[in-house]
Amino acid sequence: MNIIFFFCEYRLYAVGGRDGATGLRETESFDPHTNRWSSCAPMQKRRGGVAVAACNGFLFAIGGHESSATNKSTVRFDDGERYDPRCDQWTLITSLNRPKEALAIAAVYDKLYIVGGFDGKVLDEVEKYDPEKDKWSKVKPFAYSCFSF
User: Fold this and answer.
1) pLDDT tens digit string along 44-100?
2) Where are the domains of the chain?
């Protein structure tokens, strides 16, 4: 699973990933004050190889893929989802430039940046997401092609 610490709520979140057979929709949060994990609303799509970051009080799960051990074809996603912990709900956000998985992601000020990824080949693309406008824009490519596990 992909794990992100969400500073606004002081919780640790486990989001998506794979269980060895298929991609996961599950989201769980850990409360360090009670030392307990609890289930949250699941994502709308099963997302293995998803990039997860916290920005502006929300969690974002970007890209990823759906595949299973029995079906060798991989469906990569060109979209993402935003999780609002105040109402325990995921909503789809606008699409990326292309479907991809294994992205590096970072929140910088009030924007998200994704770097690289994999769409059948390793990518050097960089995209910036503005959550206020729900819009992706291309940024100058990275000097090297890269992807994240």
Assistant:
1) 999 988 999 999 999 999 999 887 655 667 889 999 999 999 999 999 999 999 999
2) 2-101
pTM confidence score: 0.89
CA distances from 65 to 11, 130, 142 (A): 26, 23, 22
How many whole angstroms from its chain centre is CA 57?
15
Cα→Cα distances 25→19, 47, 96, Å: 11, 6, 20
The chain-wide mean pLDDT, for the chain, equals 87
Contact partners, residue 108, CB within 8 Å, separation at least 6: none
Angle at 6 between CA 130 and CA 45, to 5 degrees: 65
Written as one string, the DSSP assignment of 95-129 is --SS--BS-EEEEETTEEEEE--BSSSBB--EEEE
For residue 70, which amino acid is it? T
